[in-house]
Inverse folding.
């Protein structure tokens, strides 16, 4: 079934707030086989609301609307939809008592009268009682289309979706089943990848779609199959996943929707091996990306961000001569940094980075964007010099991605050895 | 002037990716007096793209489109817009050479032929050269409406906006002058702040708008004045900035659009003082936020991410007894970590963090979300225990913000002493 999401409110349009509600809703609709086909953010204005409702209901069978239900004057949603659905507005007594109780609970002796308006609902709508806030939701059906109105406050919207809306959608018979499968690849560009599996992609049946979801240094492939026979869809998808996996040998990190860092934390923990980093140009960004994952403490011992040369010597015991002869940005120095991190933090694996992140500080010999990365494992080691761009943030992001790639390659090789 | 944003791609509709691009664009259009009136996320399908372009161009004078420009098969945008604008597709030789150079730089001997398509552009469009990626942007004008097409990868979109698109829009709005002034505040919540300056806000003339742009731990105020007399606008705005600044004494960090970290790097560099961090629960995120700023090497010596207790002892010389008696998450331990970082990295200031980031690992005494932060300066020191949420990412972000706030407060006090 197709759904559309309409979010109402200027805070999204002026960039003050990032719309996280829509992604959450889409994620929770997918398991019910409800596919979001458009998300529209509009202003709190009569014409905009009418136009969006009209257009959405022509493309989808479900229209979810958030925001615009506050009591202040700039929220015209309720009056607009009363006209749009040609329904009178009535005051819901149960909601009114609930709103008054909430105000009392938060220590207001008298409720400002404007808040009585929170209990106003469309007579033609089913009220979706909101235990966690003052604005109730509304469910109204017209010409085969379901319209759901909810407050924009994320936890109120989530409460109403979980308790009132999703259960009703679940009751709609799910004739069409959707099955997703993922393949996470590293170290191969989107277009190279596309060329390598072009024949497999050409052979995909109509009911299986392939999407490329690239990030820096990674490409996630998603196969989405839809139909009526769940077991068949799963079997068919698995066949293509196997074909693609075999074709891309050496580039496969995982087969689920998780992030690369999550897979690294899991696989290192399973293997009982530990990691440390020694970072110059990345300034702790490699460490921060790993430690953002719950459970990282099982396999991550620590990091030394050695920005100053004195720190490279004192903390990691990089030799004075190495720094003098080859410089801070050199394969020799990153290798000694990685050795230092492995020793200081007593780990099995270490990553080290050093580079000219930019935008200034480059020389003819070592231009902005030049980055050296070393990884050391239990048995082997690798060191590479990259030449990136002149944008500091991008250089740091790319270095993080490439160093995790190098770590993964070394780790995969060594796992096979043991 | 009115603008609309159209984002193309299934990853937004299925909830896999949260759309942060649109908020960024809206924020950067506002200072040019360009107001976003609708944001539409659609699927990579011919009819959806055509319908969205048509509707947007009827409501706005500027239509910004992101996504759908990759070389693989699921990107139909380019062909659709060629038909929509009735423009032939041509291969841009300059872009082609750039794409080939990028592939060579990243170590690919041969570029997959599919990538030649990246150099295909509409003959009727101005090419927006993309130095940081393979997909160029396009600028095309039709019937008084400007359409801009950009890749959806955030850093490529931001690069094109900053370097190619915003400067052209700035030339547009030359008739009406817009003047922006900023006030960056720390340590005061949005609603408290609004209450404190309510009377000043009420007295603002019609042609000056006040926006609250909150981040975790910070609120940036933006005053936007528009009119025809630039000198008058600047003078009037300055009066209100002075009033607000006086009212919020003790909470003001700066008066420009820069990030808090940029101001810290600048002020520390000017004062000739240096910083190091010792991080446990933040895992390098404090260090990464500082070193993301160009020129950070002038004032940042390094960081020790001491995740394991052994690292706290070996690298930072935290006493065994302290860890035994008070535990890793304690005011005593973070204070010794800060002292250790100050000594090891030979700096004037040090920040230390330790906490239970979650989602698991809490105890009755030390629940998930409990975080200790210490800062030491040239003369003073501060230590605080916070109780945050049970969301790991939010806890890390909050800890970064609060530790920078504590650093700034101590630094400001000490600057006045010298």
């Amino acid at each position: 079934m197709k759904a559309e999401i309409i979010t109402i409110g200027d805070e999204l349009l002026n960039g003050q707030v990032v719309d996280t509600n829509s992604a959450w809703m889409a994620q929770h609709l997918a398991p019910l086989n409800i596919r979001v086909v458009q998300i529209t953010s509009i202003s709190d204005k009569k014409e905009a609301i009418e136009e969006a409702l009209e257009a959405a209901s022509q493309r989808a069978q479900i229209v979810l609307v958030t925001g615009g239900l506050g009591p202040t004057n700039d929220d015209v949603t309720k009056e607009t939809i009363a006209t749009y659905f040609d329904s009178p507005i009535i005051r819901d007594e149960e909601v009114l008592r609930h709103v008054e109780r909430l105000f009392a609970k938060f220590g207001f002796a008298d409720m400002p009268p404007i808040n009585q308006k929170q209990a106003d609902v469309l007579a033609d709508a089913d009220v979706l009682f909101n235990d966690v806030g003052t604005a109730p939701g509304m469910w109204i059906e017209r010409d085969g289309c379901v319209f759901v109105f909810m407050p924009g406050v994320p936890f109120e919207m989530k409460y109403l979706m979980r308790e009132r809306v999703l259960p009703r959608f679940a009751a709609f018979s799910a004739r069409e089943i959707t099955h997703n499968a993922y393949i996470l690849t590293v170290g191969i560009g989107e277009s190279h990848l596309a060329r390598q599996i072009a024949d497999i992609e050409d052979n995909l049946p109509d009911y299986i779609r392939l999407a490329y979801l690239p990030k820096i240094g990674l490409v996630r492939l998603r196969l989405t199959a839809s139909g009526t026979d769940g077991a068949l869809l799963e079997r068919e998808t698995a066949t293509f996943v196997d074909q693609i996996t075999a074709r891309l040998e050496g580039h496969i990190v995982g087969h689920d929707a998780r992030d690369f860092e999550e897979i690294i934390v899991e696989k290192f923990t399973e293997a009982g091996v530990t990691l440390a980093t020694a970072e110059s140009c990345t300034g702790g960004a490699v460490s921060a990306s790993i430690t953002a994952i719950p459970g990282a403490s099982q396999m991550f011992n620590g990091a030394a961000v050695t920005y100053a040369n004195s720190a490279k010597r004192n903390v990691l015991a990089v030799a004075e001569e190495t720094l003098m002869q080859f410089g801070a940005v050199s394969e020799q120095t990153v290798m000694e940094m990685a050795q230092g991190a492995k020793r200081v933090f007593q780990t099995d694996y270490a990553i080290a980075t050093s580079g000219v992140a930019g935008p200034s500080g480059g020389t003819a010999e070592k231009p902005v964007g030049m980055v050296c990365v070393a990884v050391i494992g239990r048995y082997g080691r690798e060191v590479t010099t990259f030449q990136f761009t002149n944008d500091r943030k991008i250089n740091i992001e790319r270095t993080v991605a490439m160093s995790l790639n190098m770590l993964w390659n070394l780790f995969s090789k060594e796992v096979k050895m043991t």
